Amino acid sequence: MTQSAKSEQRNQFHTVSLREILQAMPKVDLHRHLEGSLRLETLAEAAREHGVDLPSYDIEELRPLVQVVDGDPYDFHRFLEKFKLLRRFYSCREAVERVAYEAVTDAAEDNVQYLELRFSPASLAMTQDFSLDEVTDWVVQAVNRAQRDHNIAVGLIVSVMRDFGRAVAENVTEVAIAYRDRGVVGLDLAGDEVHYPGKPFADLFRRAKAAGLGITVHAGEAMGPERVYEAITVLEADRIGHGVRTIENSDVVQLVLRRGIALEVCPTSNLQTGVVRSLGTHPLRDLYRLGLRVTLNTDDPSVSNTTLTDEYVVAIQGIGLTMIELKNIIMNGVRAAFLPPREKARLEKRVAKALGLTTSARFRWRFWE
Ligand code: HPA
Ligand code: ZN
After folding, report:
1. Which atom of ligand 1 has the smallest separation from the CA of 33?
2. Are 150 and 104 in contact (CB under 8 A)?
3. Among all ligands shown, which has an atom nearest to the Cα of 239?
């Protein structure tokens, strides 16, 4: 065969890239903030439509204000700063509903089959003085519509912001509990971990747990393993948001292991908040190999300019996970979901089958529980 015939034959076959394989994989995201999922196009377009005051309505001019871009220092507080401008966007019911609907749509397009989407009712309500109930209602309705329109199941998590104070936290917790039968599956503690410990919120998280909500707490991200310890022992967390600094203390590693606590790891976010110096030194692989129940998630897709497919690519190419390890981690996500047992079993069966996993492998994970 001549050289040109050979290359012609080669060109007839499309080489499937790793990204395409990962894109097609069924995915589970347990840690994604609604406020960090706002499409830049929507921000510019809808802000103009609804008369929101922004420094610019040009996407490229807005980008560095709401997204981590090349040249930005990787710093936790700078990362959180990006949310301040985004809060101006929630000027009316339509804006809140649009963000919620599109966040679910984007996840479905990335082949996320089960999404736990967290939102801070206080952040959505504060600019226009909406009530926490009404913004929660708008999110619930838009998410339900998006679930029906796309092939995806969504559970909502309500975020209490550490830096908004006790009184707001109490009201937000009450709303979360009131919406337990209307799509809210968990309560989260988010915001500035450095200046605001979790302890003052302990009674609220215990109340939410007693009411049947799953508990997840951002900890061991900007602060060390002592905050993971606090989240588990004082706030009774079932899962830890990030928790990557657990690795720094073997007693805390043992505690997380013994209690079967899942870690919601978000590699790109961890890089951009300065929690890890590089992806190559991210502790995800070590945490996994120690037997901890790690999961892989996005955190804030639009702030970090990422998708869950991107995070899977990073896990394999940047962090060095194998494909089977990644598949196990996806199953960890299913097993750590705040879903009732029957629904979880159904999801587990469906995802394991789509990932081509055997019954014996499934049995091994059950055994772990
Ligand atoms: N940490 C704390 N709060 C947050 C984060 C985070 O990574 N993302 C959005 N809110
Ligand atoms: Zn987060």
Report:
1. 9
2. yes
3. 2
Tell me the CA–centroid distance for residue 190 and ligand 1, in Å: 6
Q: For residue 264, give the 3-state DSSP assignment.
A: strand
Active site residue 221: yes
Cα 234 from Cα 226, distance rounded (Å):
11
Q: Return the axis-axis angle of helices 250-259 and 225-233, rounded to nearest 10°.
A: 30
300 lines ligand 1 (CB under 6 A): yes
For 313-327, b where at least 16 C-beta lie within 10 A, e where not — what string?
Answer: bbbbebbebeeebbb
Q: Which ligand is nearest to the CA of 268?
A: 1
With a cut of 70, say whether residue 27 has pLDDT above it.
Answer: yes
Active-site entry in 116, 221, 230, 264: 221
Quote the domain boundaries for residue 85: 57-368
Let me know if residue 72 belongs to a domain.
yes
Q: How many domains does the chain have?
A: 1
Is any atom of ligand 1 closer than 6 Å to the C-beta of 82? no
pLDDT of residue 4: 64
2 SS3 class: coil
The mean per-residue pLDDT over the stretch 37-53 comes to 94
Ligand 2 centre to CA of 50 (Å) is 28
243 lines ligand 1 (CB under 6 A): no
Q: What is the pLDDT of residue 213?
A: 98
Does ligand 1 lie within 6 Å of residue 299's CB atom? yes
Query: Considering just the CA atoms, what is the radius of gyration of the chain in Å?
Result: 21
Give residue-wise pLDDT tens across range 118-128.
999 999 999 99
Ligand 2 centre distance from Cα of residue 297 (Å): 9
Task: Tell me what pLDDT residue 7 has.
Answer: 60
Taking only the tens place, the pLDDT of each residue in 146-201 is 999 998 999 999 999 999 999 999 999 999 999 999 999 999 999 999 999 999 99
Let me know if residue 27 belongs to a domain.
Answer: no
In a domain, 51, yes or no: no
Answer whether residue 24 is part of any domain: no
**What residues have a C-beta under 5 A from ligand 2, the ion?**
299
CATH for 103:
3.20.20.140
Say which residues have a Cβ less than 8 Å from residue 39's Cβ, sequence separation at least 6.
102, 106, 302
User: 269: Cβ below 6 Å to ligand 1?
Assistant: yes
Q: In this model, does residue 295 exceed pLDDT 80?
A: yes
